[in-house]
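Customer ticket, subject: "Can you confirm the structure for F-box only protein?"

Message body: Hello, I'm evaluating your service for our small team and ran a test protein. I'd like someone to confirm that this is what the system normally returns, since I don't have a reference to compare against.
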Amino acid sequence: MMATTEQPLDRLPDELLLSIASHLPPAEAIAFSLTNERHNRIVGETLRWRKLCLSRWRYGLAPRYRPNLAENFPLEVPWRQLVETRQATDQKAEALFDDLLRTQQGRIRRMEEVAALGYDVKDLLLRWQDKTPDDADDVLARRFYASAILDLIHRTIAIDIWTRLAKDDMKIELVDALGAYDLFVLNGKWGDLEDIHEELGKIADDVPGHYGRKGWDACDKKQRALKIAEFLRERNLLGNPDGTAYHDLRNNFLSMALFAPPHTSLPLQSVALYCAVAQRHDINAQPSNYPGHVYAVVDGPWSSRNDEGQLGSELADDNPPLSSGSAHTTGQRMYLDPFNSAHEVAAIHLARSLQDRRLPAGQVATMMGPTSVAEAARRAGRNILRSAQSAFHEDGGPLAYETATYVGLWNAVLLGDGQVRTRENTLEQSRLYAAPLLERLLRHFPQEIGLAEKLYASLFPHDEEEGSSNQEPHPMDPSEEIAAFRTADDQPRTPKTRPTNDAEGLEVKYRVGQYFEHRRYQYEGIVTGWDEICKMPEAWIQQMRVDDLEDGRGQPFYHIIDTHRTARYVAQENILPLTREPTGDLITKIAGRYFKRWDSEACVFVSNLKEEYPED
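Agent reply: Thanks for trying us out. I re-ran your input and got the following:
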């Protein structure tokens, strides 16, 4: 039975009572709400709305509201209002999403409008991507477009990080600069930056307990730096035991090292993880600028000097600078190689290796010092592009060749390769990557055209001043191509009817959605469109030796998408229809861009291109 006797607290206004209750742990807050009817009205209702909010949405809430980040959630948050706002946002996203599935016209624009809602719709998109029932009428399309919009949301964040980094934003952390690659490639399932920071925080909190609080407190800063490396290696979070898999794409991503066994990584990612944990214990650890391998540069001062870990007096620069352009420090410096071991690396050995290359003393000092966050991000981008080459023949997966190459190109455009120093040279270098980046974007990720628009507006600025209309455009400026793409997206599709039986030429045998194997090259694909005869330019016809085919250029040709996400143009005589379920899930993920679902009875994909091919 609730108490009825008035207490001093009952004389306080509702706002103060709620503020008091907000400082209680959840169990005590609930007990407080049961003491009388007024408390239940003020606190109990708030607790119910909070529970509803946190059970329905995980993303888009401030981190301090999230159940896995705090034990005590603030009651003063307007939880009911937050629930109502999020419900309205979900409804808006659902309407836009249904429209983009229904019609091809304005599909990219609607995807952008959903993505503009950001993390407020991430939970909804994840439900569509991961939990749409297999028997839903539009299962493939719903999953595909939800995933594509999630990519757009995450990549927008990643590009913003690299753009700020290119402008020398000193607030960008190393984990965010490298974690942006995870956002770009891994669809946010493991690679969300909040998840990475949260996991690193948990790991850092576990270190003192692993060694015992008294033992940890007795360690000086240098001993702690070494113990952190030891702890991370014992947890198998650093390094790459399987040397044959050193260049695997997965080793380039922080979230794979943190969340996905066997937790392998490249030296840069191992050092980045080490530094992130060390910095949470007030240890100044940064990745090195050393060529060929990445070490952790850990700065003191220590409680005692370890001569083996110091540069010898024979070096011209005994104390390398802390960072580019900074003054020399008076403390000591230690080097670690957490990728390979938990032991200190003798600085004199590293320095002599550089001196053996006949490098000037000043350059040796720079290479022995820590690198910048921007240069670490460039280095990661170069590594990904190299790893992507070895992934060319991989059968899809989240780290497919095209996606990895795409992210590497974005980084190269935004940050360059670090070999040029003037703004003019950096701009020209970025422009060199413009064409291959746009080509991949339009072929595989057309929903990201807005990101390209912003990028190319900065690479190829248009002078709007009077009298500038006759100015010659830059030869690599893709503005007209982007504008044409935008126009095409907003235009209604022109219906393409199938030819009648008495029409001249060969019959168009296959329809949009036909699953087939190429007669000559044995790859699998899906028909996404057709022409009554070959419509490619003469140069292409000659290069592909189309006239050598049995039915030549006069036979129907089909636009298709293959299992490597590659769009191709295939002659009818090379189409061998398949009457079995598609193998592997990659082709069904690709199919969602064009089709609603797989029809197991007819052994075809059900078209979502009816405006363009109404009879297929």
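A couple of notes from the result: The CA atoms of residues 140 and 290 lie 47 Å apart. The chain has four domains: 8-77, 81-172, 197-374, 515-607. Feel free to reply with more questions.
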